[in-house]
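pasting for ref
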Amino acid sequence: MEKKIVKKIDIHVHTIEEPDLLRPRGDTFATPEQLLAMYDQLGVEKAVLLPILSQEGGYDTNTNREILRIVRRWPDRFYWFCNVDPRAHQNAPGSDLVYLLEHYKKLGAKGVG
């Protein structure tokens, strides 16, 4: 019987190039290198990286630009979803954020997280 190979993709992960801010439990987000070492052990082929733009969502932030730099360094291992803060542009309900989404799509974002 032929062994079936299952591709593994981590669909939601945060990483940071230079961790410096400890979370209350004493750890930080993993660096891309740490993630890749773990993924190699687990057989994870790709991961979807998501930035954290707002302090409300965590203890540290990273930008779309930082995540894009990481993806460009390891394009065979990482995809990325951009993040657009809905409060951008006067925090108004009618704000048109499509141009931001189109910009990140042109840079290779596969979605919005």
